[in-house]
Amino acid sequence: MTTPVPVIAIDGPSGSGKGTIARRVAAALGYHLLDSGALYRLTAMAAAKRGVQLDDAEAVAKIARCLDIRFDSHADGSERIWLADEDVTHEVRKESTGAGASTVAAIPAVREALLERQRAFQKAPGLVADGRDMGTHVFTTAPLKVFLTASAEERAKRRYKQLKDKGMDVSLAALSRDIEDRDRRDSERSVAPLKPATDARMLDSSGLSIEAVTKTVLEWVAEL
Ligand code: DC
Q1: pTM exceeds 0.85 for this model
Q2: Where along the chain do its domains lie?
Q3: Fold of 7-222
């Protein structure tokens, strides 16, 4: 019998630091990385580029099923994201793209369309998967499920710094509102809402450094 490829699922709300922690943990373990939010972001972008309304469930799901995307990782740790032949690395991170992603992510047929694509990332030696439903839906048998949280205020501040560092023009008040709206949409949707798996380990990163959070997750991995 072959041993299943291990998956470390890291779920949590916007700005909880999932992306950063998932990247660090994957690098430390030499595992692959799935940024599942990017798939929803790319779906929203592909729809918008074709003039499809984001609430047109059938048309958006069709786009999700035929997404032509590529994630290129480079030796220096940088990554480029392609939508067909367009480099969308920068655009994919915009707040407006995140809001669109949250809208299309509430469409059951879109989630269904992206399921197998996400599972295809489970390759040896292992996978660190970050998102909202990695532990509850996509990788239900993951040996380690982490639910990462942080206070809404801290999450808004982190997002603000992240976007400012990228040279984007943002306001903290607007970001806080966006985060609250997004939390509500992601938690209240009928399909795969944001919630911890019953067997998830909770980790509140408020006031903790990236190093401390990464260390805790790696300690949990070592216990497996
Ligand atoms: O993590 P992120 O900000 O890139 O995610 C963008 C949106 O996609 C987020 O508002 C919710 C949605 N999402 C989801 O519903 N399920 C996932 N596994 C990942 C993201």
Answers
A1: yes
A2: 7-222
A3: Rossmann fold (3.40.50)
